[in-house]
Design a protein that fits this description.
Helix content is 42%, strand content 16%. The chain is an alpha/beta fold. It has two domains: 145 residues, Aspartate Aminotransferase, domain 1 (Alpha-Beta Complex), CATH 3.90.1150.10; 232 residues, 3-Layer(aba) Sandwich (Aspartate Aminotransferase, domain 2), CATH 3.40.640.10. The protein has a seven-stranded mixed sheet, with helices on both faces. Helix 7 runs parallel beside helix 8 and helix 13 runs parallel beside helix 15. The longest helix has 20 residues. The chain starts with a helix and ends with a helix.
Length: 392
């Protein structure tokens, strides 16, 4: 078979495009946070990770502009060589202090954080033990490492303990969980995870991409459970609540020093551009100084989950601003997405490989800046479309 033959055989996306219900790569003409513009139409955005609505905050926008004025548009090199700015180090210091760790290291993307950390720490005789619903970047990090990968059933602590028990007595293991799971909105049972890691001598890494700025007064899942000192590594991103692009890992200073010299995606990538670092730092300071944004987005998430569940939608076990609507069929998920889109509501259609087959869903997510009127319109439209499509 020719190497490219698989490309010609991939037709499902083209078929959905031709039928008019392809839900991806929608090119917006403009954005105002809670609303976006597409071909002259305004839609309410209910499918963004902009949890605190800070991408349009004037202070964050000005910080990005100021960083460009001072440093230019790019560092044109890796952090190791010519790409480290005072701005990067300032951001790392404030991140570490905010999440309660000795040190932090900023990467160009959140995806590369997980590749670099897992790939450099989990060696030939080691193993990463990960929740089955962890983010794809964690799975790729395991694939990049020389060690083994073992998966346990989602948030199933009995299965995690069975997995740890099966490891050799002297095994060096890294347990990895998401703090908040990006598709279901549920929270990892971190107290029990910590307990099992201590019992079996494993290290613990928490991917807090969707919890930073949301849980624990914005400090994330470990702070939410008051277990910050029990988590060895805390990963976070700037592309959600911190209104930018990039990511970081935080932990003990010696550990961060090691990663700085061995994490290949960090060493061999151009550094986070000044505008992104400046915006992330401004957003971080807003989160620290104005915790009311975190409280509001959690309140909105609870309200929407309760209302949608009360209508008869299956919203799973969400406890956050991520509220899934479970459908369980790929084509129907796309059709419901299109019906909502036509009504002026933008959500995310989630199908494999983002979720397992038969668990397809619409992912709705909310911002602290959504107005009461916008939330009411989202609920009314979801109820209307849900009845039309036989979901409720």
């Amino acid at each position: 078979m020719d190497l490219f033959e698989k490309c010609a055989k991939f037709t499902v996306a083209a078929e959905a495009m031709a039928a008019g219900y392809y839900p991806y790569f929608i090119p917006f003409d403009g954005s105002e946070g809670t609303e976006v513009t597409y071909q002259g139409r305004r839609l309410i955005m209910a499918g963004s990770n902009n949890y605190l609505g800070l991408t349009t905050d004037p202070r964050v926008k000005q910080a990005a502009i100021d960083a460009i004025a001072r440093y230019g548009t790019s560092c044109t090199g890796s952090r190791l060589l010519n790409g480290t700015l005072r701005l990067h180090e300032e951001l790392e210091c404030e991140l570490a202090d905010f999440v309660g760790k000795e040190a932090a290291l900023v990467f160009t993307t959140g995806f590369s954080v997980n590749l670099g950390v897992i790939g450099s720490l989990v060696g030939r005789d080691d193993a990463a033990i990960v929740d089955r619903e962890c983010h794809a970047s964690i799975m790729e990090g395991c694939a990049c490492s020389l060690g083994g990968r073992k998966r346990f059933s989602h948030n199933d602590m009995e299965d995690l303990e069975r997995t740890l028990k099966r490891c050799p007595p002297k095994a060096r293991n890294l347990v990895v969980v998401d703090g908040v799971y990006s598709m279901g909105g549920d929270i990892a049972p971190l107290p029990r995870v910590v307990e099992l890691c201590r019992k079996y001598g494993a290290r613990l890494m928490v991917d807090d991409a969707h919890a930073l700025g949301v849980l624990g007064g914005g400090r994330g899942t470990p702070a939410h459970f008051r277990l910050t000192d029990q988590v060895d590594l805390l990963m976070g991103t700037f592309s959600k609540a911190l209104a930018s692009i990039g990511g970081f890992i935080a932990g003990d200073a010696k550990l961060i020093h090691y990663l700085k010299h061995f994490a290949r995606p960090f060493i061999f990538s151009a550094s986070c551009p000044p505008s992104a670092a400046g915006a992330a730092l401004a957003a971080l300071r807003i989160v620290r100084e104005e915790p009311e944004h975190c409280r509001r987005v959690l309140e909105i998430g609870r309200k929407m989950a309760l209302a949608l569940g009360g209508m008869g939608f299956d919203v799973g076990q969400t406890e956050t601003p991520i509220v899934p609507i479970r459908i369980g069929d790929q084509t129907k998920t796309a059709l419901v997405w299109k019906a909502l889109f036509d009504e002026g509501i933008f959500v995310n259609a989630i199908v494999p490989p983002a979720v397992p087959p038969k668990t397809e869903c619409l992912r709705t997510s909310y911002m602290a800046t959504h107005t009461g009127e916008q939330l009411s319109r989202i609920l009314d439209t979801l109820q209307k479309v849900g009845r039309q499509m036989g979901l409720i």
